[in-house]
């Protein structure tokens, strides 16, 4: 899974202006300006060939959490039994930030990366 591994995807910043192909850039401005305490990723579906899946939603949720001024954001990803949700949540929300998994629901707590610029994208 090489997609999203370049510096354009691991640099912390506003996803609205990201050069990463995974970033959702067409959401209303209010979505990017909000300081989110909790984000739930449960769409779009990806189990049909015609649907886009959750790769971009997972990536963007992680970047919104990292881009907040301070504090932490709880991110929940549903349907982690599917390969995309499993792999992308671990890659972009990071196994080191995972708090718990209950059945098909995975919980991550992601700290601001703006308040500590030397923080790695994913903790070891």
Write the layout of secondary structure elements.
Elements: H1 7-10, H2 29-33, E1 38-41, H3 55-67, E2 72-78, H4 83-94, E3 98-102, E4 105-111
Parallel strand pairs: 1-2
Antiparallel strand pairs: 2-4, 3-4
Helix pairs in contact: 3-4
Can you characterise this structure?
- By secondary structure, the chain is α+β, with helices and mostly antiparallel strands.
- Helices cover 27% and strands 19% of the residues.
- The protein has a 4-stranded mixed sheet with strand order 1-2-4-3, with helices on one face.
- Helix 3 runs parallel beside helix 4.
- The longest helix is centred in the middle third of the chain and has 13 residues.
- It is globular.
- It starts with 6 loop residues before the first helix and ends in a 13-residue tail after the last strand.
- The relative contact order is 0.18.
- The mean pLDDT is 89.
Task: From the structure above, extract its key features.
single chain; 124 residues; alpha+beta; 4-stranded mixed beta sheet; 4 helices; 27% helix; globular
In a nutshell, what does this entry contain?
With 124 residues, this protein is an alpha+beta fold. The chain has four helices and four strands. Helices cover 27% and strands 19% of the residues.
List unreliable stretches of 5+ residues: none
Distance between the termini: 19 Å
Q: Give the count of helical stretches.
A: 4
What gyration radius follows from the Cα positions, in whole Å?
A: 13 Å
**How would a crystallographer describe the biggest sheet?**
4 strands, mixed
**How would you sum up the global shape?**
globular
Encode the helix/strand succession as letters.
Answer: HHEHEHEE
Question: Which percent range fits the helix content?
Answer: 25-40%
Question: Pairing-aware structural class of the strands and helices?
Answer: alpha+beta
Spatial arrangement of strands, main beta sheet: 1-2-4-3
Mean pLDDT: 89
Tell me the strand percentage band. 15-25%
Number of strands: 4
């Amino acid at each position: 899974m090489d997609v999203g591994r370049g510096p354009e995807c691991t640099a912390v910043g506003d996803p609205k202006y990201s050069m990463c192909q995974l970033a959702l850039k067409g959401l209303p401005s209010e979505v990017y300006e909000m300081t989110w305490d909790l984000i739930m990723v449960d769409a779009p579906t990806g189990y049909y060939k015609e649907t886009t899946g959750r790769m971009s939603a997972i990536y963007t949720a992680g970047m919104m959490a990292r881009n907040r001024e301070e504090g932490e954001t709880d991110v929940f990803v549903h349907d982690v039994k599917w390969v995309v949700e499993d792999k992308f949540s671990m890659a972009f929300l990071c196994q080191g930030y995972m708090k718990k998994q209950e059945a098909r629901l995975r919980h991550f707590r992601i700290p601001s990366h703006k308040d500590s610029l030397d923080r790695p994208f994913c903790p070891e």
